[in-house]
Amino acid sequence: MIRRLLQANLRNDAQAIEEVEGLLSNIAEAWKQISPKASFQESR
């Protein structure tokens, strides 16, 4: 992702930035789903 952002910056490529934004959004959503499950297991 870092390489893609660097390329996007050098080429002024908004589509590449949107691509990375989508990937980061997917990762953030996955962490949100994992967090409640991990908290539940820790409280046992």
Low-confidence stretches: none
By DSSP, the count of extended strands is 0
Overall helicity = over 70%
Order of helices and strands: HH
Major sheet summary line: none
Which structural class should the secondary elements be placed in?
Answer: mainly alpha
Count of all domains = 1
Radius of gyration based on Cα positions = 16 Å
Strand content: under 5%
On the 0-100 scale, what is the average pLDDT? Answer: 89
First-residue to last-residue Cα separation: 37 Å
Tally of alpha and pi helices = 2
- Choose one word for the global shape: rod-shaped
Please describe what this structure looks like:
With 44 residues, the protein is an all-alpha fold. The chain has one domain. It contains two helices and no strands. Helix 1 packs antiparallel against helix 2. It is rod-shaped, with a radius of gyration of 16 Å. The mean pLDDT is 89.
Task: Considering the chains and any ligands shown, give keywords for the structure.
single chain, 44 residues, mainly alpha, 2 helices
Q: How would you briefly describe this protein structure?
A:
With 44 residues, the protein is mainly alpha-helical.
